[in-house]
Amino acid sequence: MCSLRVKTDYLRCFLSEVGTLNESGQVVLDSTMTNTRVMKLLYCLCLESCEYSKYYGGSNLFKFFTAFKAYPKGPLEVELYNNIGALAGVSYKDGRIESCEQYVIDETNLIALMIREICRSTRFGILLNKSVDELVELTHKLFIWREAMVCSNDKVMRTDRDDYLDLELTKYIRLLS
Questions:
Q1: Contact of 50 with 43, CB cutoff 8 Å
Q2: Are 68 and 78 in contact (CB under 8 A)?
C-alpha cells in the first residue's frame, strides 16, 4: 500500500504538468479542474502508464494509486478524494483544486518522468480538451468501472489484475482513436 504522502506527491506532479506556473512558484489550475475532472484524468493517467510501463519497464501508476472505486460519475481514488482538503501542498476550495506547490522533477525519479511524458503526449492532450461530462462518459464505457459498479458490493475497482488492465487499456485506446 502506498502512503498518502507519495500519492500526494505524484498528484502534484500531474497537476504541475496540466496547470500554469505563476510568478510565485504556485501551479494554478483553471476552473474546469473540479474533483470529478481531476479524478477522471488521474484514472486515465494511470491507464496510460500501463502502456508506458510495457514499453519502458517499471511500475504503472496503479501500483501507487491503489484505492479506485466505482462511483456514479466514474472512477475515484478514494484515499485522495477523502483527504483532498488536507493534502500537503494542495490548495482546495469550493469543490476544486485551485492550486498546488510546484512539483520539481528529480531526473532520477522514473515515475515522475513517466507522468511528465504522458501528460505531454498527444493522446493525453485530447483528454485535457474534453469536458468533465465527456470524461465521465468515457470512463463509463470502460470494463473495470462497469464491473465494479454492477457486480461489486464495495465498488472496488480491480486495478491490481494485469488481465483486467490489458482489457481496459485496449478499450480505452479504441475509444480515443
A1: no
A2: yes
